[in-house]
Amino acid sequence: MEQGKQHVLVAGAGGFIGGHLVKRLKSEGYWVRGVDIKQHEYSQSPADEFLVGDLCDPEFARRSVEGIEDVYQLAADMGGAGYIFTGDHDAAVMRNSATINLNMLEFGRLAGVRRFFYSSSACIYPEYNQMDPDNPKCSEESAYPAAPDSEYGWEKLFSERLYLSFMRNYGVQVRIARFHNIFGIEGSWTGGKEKAPAAMCRKVAEAPPGGEIEIWGDGKQTRSFLYVDECLEGVRRLMESDFTGPVNIGSEEMVTINQLAEMVMSIANKELSIRHIPGPLGVRGRNSDNKLMREKLGWEPSRPLRQGLETTYKWIAAQVAKHSPVESLV
User: Fold this and answer.
1) Which pLDDT band, with edges at 50, 70 and 90, does 195 fall under?
2) Closest CA relative to residue 85, chosen from 282, 285, 232
3) Domains of the chain
4) Fewest CB within a 10 Å sphere: which of 8, 11, 279, 302?
């Protein structure tokens, strides 16, 4: 390990946000160890060291935190609505993610880790505050009385309390952010674990001109989406602040899923019809409330959704073209 540099660990470095975070931290001069169950699928990690293994394994978790000062804990069993809201993966989601957090905290504190960043989720917010798609309530204090709409959300809420209890009892520093639908390049875009923006970009890229795409539900459910670069800016500002959190990191630019589809079609310059079909939906409305972020971090995201979608669509369209079967020339 290189002397004279701060040594940080990114858990989940083979994933979407974690992969981008490794690049960000390296650009800032940190010595970075990446850890994940797999290598990054879309680019070579610039991490100084990359360990492949399962953080549910206590021995691997112990090795991962050796010599580390700050831990960025993004490793989790997760995916989009097609993975989280079907109910088919609930046991794995809760067991795997909770075990990872228990291991990282216990072995981290024993190894002398001084600060932990934990990536929580907007999925912790109560379903009863998100029934009206036009007026969802997602301010940080509204998390209780707790009633997330998925086991993924319940596990995230439990783990928030886990990190805070370790801070109270063992004196480690903790920073907690609740991510709201982060999207961008070099993330899952097919296979069932992709989030809505990536899925929409893929559907539009695959559709022939004049064709149609499918959307789960009536498309009137609302969300906000944050481009990954701004997410990382929020993470770094939180980590360097004296605020523990939890704090939302998301956009306040709320759109319906139908509007998201129309925006992607416009970017692709394709006129397509939409067919609404049954499918897992999640809550009716969700939007980041950034009041606390502005107050505590003196910052908030400013990149328009369309700008991030333009970059993301171009990348996903290239992936679609790369993976499309080549037609025979004979």
Assistant:
1) confident
2) 282
3) 7-183+225-249 (3.40.50.720), 196-223+254-286+304-322 (3.90.25.10)
4) 302
At residue 330, the pLDDT reads 33
Give residue 167's identity as a one-letter amino acid code. Answer: M
- Position 86 scores a pLDDT of 72
**CA 182 – CA 101 distance, rounded (Å):** 21
Q: Which of 83, 118, 152, 313 is catalytic?
A: 152
- CB atoms under 10 Å from CB of 48, counted, come to 17
Closest by CA to 83, choosing from 279, 296, 220, 329, is 279
- DSSP H helices, the chain, are 16-27, 58-64, 81-84, 90-111, 151-170, 196-206, 228-239, 257-268, 291-297, 305-323
Convert the pLDDT of each residue in 119-163 to its tens digit: 999 999 999 999 999 999 999 999 999 999 899 999 999 999 999
| Phi, psi dihedrals of residue 6, rounded to the nearest 5° | -75, 135
Q: What is the pLDDT of residue 271?
A: 94
For 149-164, b/e burial (b = at least 16 CB within 10 A) is bbbbbbbbbebbebbb
35 contacts 13 by C-beta, under 8 angstroms: yes
What would the two tokens of residue 228 be?
Answer: 């990954």
Does the structure show a pLDDT above 80 at 281? no
Q: Is 170 considered catalytic here? A: no
pLDDT (0 to 100) of residue 77: 86
Cα 286 to Cα 43: distance, rounded to the nearest angstrom: 31
Beta bridge partners of 285: 222
What's the whole-number mean pLDDT along residues 175-187? 97
Q: Which of 229, 30, 244 is nearest to 120 (CA)?
A: 244
Supply the pLDDT for residue 2.
65
Q: Amino acid letter at 281?
A: L
pLDDT at residue 89, as a whole number: 81
Alpha-helix residue ranges (DSSP H) falling in 28-150: 58-64, 81-84, 90-111
CA distances from 140 to 63, 135, 249 (A): 34, 15, 11
In whole numbers, what is the pLDDT of the chain averaged over residues?
94
